[in-house]
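User: I'm preparing a small set of examples for a lab meeting where we compare how different chains pack in three dimensions. I only have the primary sequence for this one, and I'd like the structure in token form so I can line it up with the others. Please keep the answer compact; I'll paste it straight into my notes.
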Amino acid sequence: TTIVRPPGFILISSGIQDGEQPDIAFDSAENVHIVWTEYYTTESAYEIHYKMLDNDSNILIGDTLLTEPDGYNSKRPCIELDSNNYAHIVWQDKFTTGGSTEIKYMKFDPFIAPLDGSPLNITSATLVSERIISPDDGDDSKHPDLAMGSDDEPQVIWQDEEWSLWDDETIGKIMYERLDNNGNVLYGPIQLNDDDTDTWRAFPNIEVDSQNNAHTCWAAALPSEEEPWYSSAYDGDYPRLVHYSMVGNSGNVVIAN
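Assistant: Understood. Below is the structure token output for the 257-residue chain.
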């Protein structure tokens, strides 16, 4: 199959299966590291892929599968590189039949590769094998975002979806964790939103400043008394809002939403 591309970009995914939800990061030499999720028709599920380019768009590490093709969706990957140029990845993963979606983490060294365009041997490169970092409590954890400061400690935010039997609807919570450089939890999970359980919350983002404080924001919508959350959030019956919060270097919430 010939892939026709207009000038101005190069194809990163296979072009054969659906590729989406990419994220990008740079290392200290300004090499480009890209992760994305790609659909496998043979298993009807998404898996996480990785590729590395130099700053002139030459491929240093070819298309590398990071997650095992197991028939369960691995989606929404995020990547950061620490000061040792180790890659840290988080993503959402539904890994059991009928189970909840949780946030997973892994760490690997891309520079064990020959950097000749061939795929990375992820088994040899892995420094921390994939592990669950969100509470495996039956609630879905989705839409992670990842940031890293000068201390090389990954800071992660995601949305938790809890089913309310009382209201017969899904309630959104925004959760935060700070990890050490090997993915062990230092602080958290910390709920950043208030206790208004009738609020829809989603799509969180995080950045870290020079003091390694975490600055976070997310979307929210309050339902009216007559309308359920999904109508309010998506149909415009009630305004969608953007909330902000700040978490200090010691894990304390400095600014609450």
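A couple of notes for your slides: Residues 101 and 140 are 5 Å apart (CA to CA). The radius of gyration is 19 Å.

User: Perfect, thanks.
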